[in-house]
Amino acid sequence: MIEKINYADYGLAKILSDLEFEIFGTNWQPEIILQKIIQNEFIYWIHTTNSKINAYVAVQVIDDELHIIGIGVKEEFRNKNIARELMDSLLQFFLNKDYVCIRLEVRETNIAAINLYKSYLFQEYGVRENYYKNESAVLFELRKLNAIR
Ligand SMILES: CC(C)(COP(=O)(O)OP(=O)(O)OC[C@H]1O[C@@H](n2cnc3c(N)ncnc32)[C@H](O)[C@@H]1OP(=O)(O)O)[C@@H](O)C(=O)NCCC(=O)NCCS
């Protein structure tokens, strides 16, 4: 089940922070996540099974743009279309609001994520050399006119 988080407390922010750490090895502190959700700067969609969160996509609102700050699925839940369901929810939200684009950066070797974004017609618009340790970031954006879902 996919849901958009409309209310958060410290406990939920801690779960999101721990999940981010499990998937990415880095994380925002729960206090920051909580503050930014309350301020409507971070928006999360989560995927749950039996009330347990096993995947999320999070965006940061920057003026009239949405920036994907993370999409992650726990390893044992991958390849079951969960990322696609999360992206569908994000896209639906994007299409119903006045944001002009969705942007993100991704490691150049992250083929799974790049395929996912390309399947939604995200376009590459730049590269940040060595943005990650010894690895470049590819910058993608989806402008409203190109969004198909
Ligand atoms: C990238 C990630 C979110 C995909 O999640 P997922 O739930 O397994 O993906 P889905 O099953 O919904 O697949 C959706 C699409 O993604 C692409 N994809 C997913 N896994 C892939 C893989 N192993 N190889 C190539 N493409 C892949 C495909 O385009 C796929 O569509 P298709 O099945 O029609 O070909 C997941 O691998 C993950 O959490 N990775 C670690 C975190 C990360 O790197 N996040 C992205 C950077 S922010």
Describe the 3D structure:
With 149 residues, the protein is of the alpha+beta class. Helix content is 32%, strand content 38%. It contains 4 helices and 7 strands, in the order E-H-H-E-E-E-H-E-H-E-E. Helix 1 (10-24) crosses helix 2. It binds coenzyme A.
Measured distance between first and last alpha carbons: 19 Å
Share of helical residues: 25-40%
Query: CATH class, anyone?
Result: Alpha Beta
Order of helices and strands: EHHEEEHEHEE
What is the overall pLDDT average? 96
Q: Which band does the percent of strand residues land in?
A: 35-45%
The fourth-level CATH homologous superfamily is: Gcn5-related N-acetyltransferase (GNAT)
* Count of folded domains: 1
CATH fold-level assignment: Aminopeptidase
Largest sheet: 7 strands, mixed
Counting helices, strands and paired strands, the structural category is alpha+beta
Cα-atom radius of gyration: 15 Å
The CATH architecture assignment turns out to be 3-Layer(aba) Sandwich
Topology, number of strands: 7
Number of helices: 4
* Poorly predicted runs of 5 or more residues: none
Task: Name the descriptors.
binds coenzyme A, alpha+beta, single chain, Aminopeptidase
In short:
By secondary structure, the protein is of the alpha+beta class. It contains four helices and seven strands. It has a seven-stranded mixed β-sheet, sandwiched between helices.
